[in-house]
């Protein structure tokens, strides 16, 4: 109706209390094993700014001119609960305290992730420099390499992309020597993401080539069967022998590996073919 006063929008803090799950906005919890403090803290601060409660993460103001917020403790407790909901259970047990403020919990987490920082940086740097692909796929190898690089960045010791590319090439050289050599000779070195794409293509090409060779050697156009003949039989005897003769010779002679064409293999009688199939690919010479 005309003249009605429009309903004012809810303040951001009021909207914050209607959030059912903060994990939808911060999907990866903070974890000591992952060393993902930088990425987690960036997302969490962004989330708090959205609802205008980011000041709870900072040290409280103590000046006489600062206004007192009657809902400060309530809102501060909400931020603490958000922190607990987005960190690993192990971390919750380490920092939980009924009297903790948001700022106190925030600083405690920061200290935990920066304890022994120099030792952690040295360890991760050595691991990255000495990583080799081994039996890993290209995807898994590059993912592990990137994960370690992210951990170093979280410890405020980021690795340059060019250095990461060098470590990656060194790591795949034992399994893909030709590709590594060609990439090294390029005038312009690829980025880390470009190198991963190139190595995925190389991995796919080698897999297809290996599969093709395997199919060629196992084609059904030249089935291998074991044909028997007596030790005194004429070695010039041709493969035109009937299927019945072949079976009889098999039963009383020594085995020899021979190859029959499809047409010749098809002429063998059913009982004989059954016997030959059972002993196919077993031995080269057996004396009955």
Can you walk through the features of this model?
- About 55% of the residues lie in helices and about 5% in strands.
- With about 290 residues, it is mainly alpha-helical.
- The chain has 3 domains: about 10-60 and about 75-115, no CATH class; about 115-210; about 225-280, no CATH class.
- It has a two-stranded antiparallel sheet.
- The model is unreliable at about 220-288 (pLDDT under 50).
- It comes from Tanacetum coccineum.
- This is WRKY family transcription factor.
- Pfam families: Retrotran_gag_2.
List the SSEs and their pairings:
Layout: H1 12-16, H2 37-50, H3 72-85, H4 89-95, H5 102-114, H6 117-129, H7 138-154, H8 161-172, H9 177-184, H10 192-217, E1 224-229, H11 243-252, E2 254-259, H12 262-266, H13 270-279
Task: Kindly summarize this structure in a few lines.
By secondary structure, the chain is mainly alpha-helical. Helices cover 53% and strands 4% of the residues.
Low-pLDDT residue spans: 220-288
Strand order of the largest sheet: 1-2
H/I helix tally: 13
- State mean pLDDT (0 to 100 scale): 75
Q: How many separate domains make up the residues? A: 3
Order of helices and strands: HHHHHHHHHHEHEHH
Q: Report on the biggest sheet.
A: 2 strands, antiparallel
Globally, the shape reads elongated
Helix content: 40-55%
Distance N terminus to C terminus? 107 Å
Given helix and strand content, the structural type is: mainly alpha
Measured on Cα atoms, how large is the radius of gyration?
36 Å
Percent strand equals: under 5%
Beta strand count: 2
